[in-house]
Amino acid sequence: MLPMLQGLEVIESTNLKYFTKEMTAEFYALKGMFLAQTGRSEDANKSFSAAVQMHDTLVKAWALWGDYLETVFTKDK
């Protein structure tokens, strides 16, 4: 779990004002993935939501959010 926490720490300490909206949305999608893997489900959902709102045609963000939701759905069954 240590690499996930390090990845999350890097994303949270990155100054996103220098990146395009698409790149920033990718950061939020990756942050959502790391949050989901560390068990912070509500924060992960918010991060994925922010990513697709920022750049609604970013396929990577939609795919990661879909994978996350599928995992949540199958885990709850």
Automatic annotation (TrEMBL):
Residues 4-76 form the PIK-related kinase FAT domain. It comes from the Eukaryota. Pfam families: FAT. This is PIK-related kinase FAT domain-containing protein. It comes from Dreissena polymorpha (Zebra mussel).
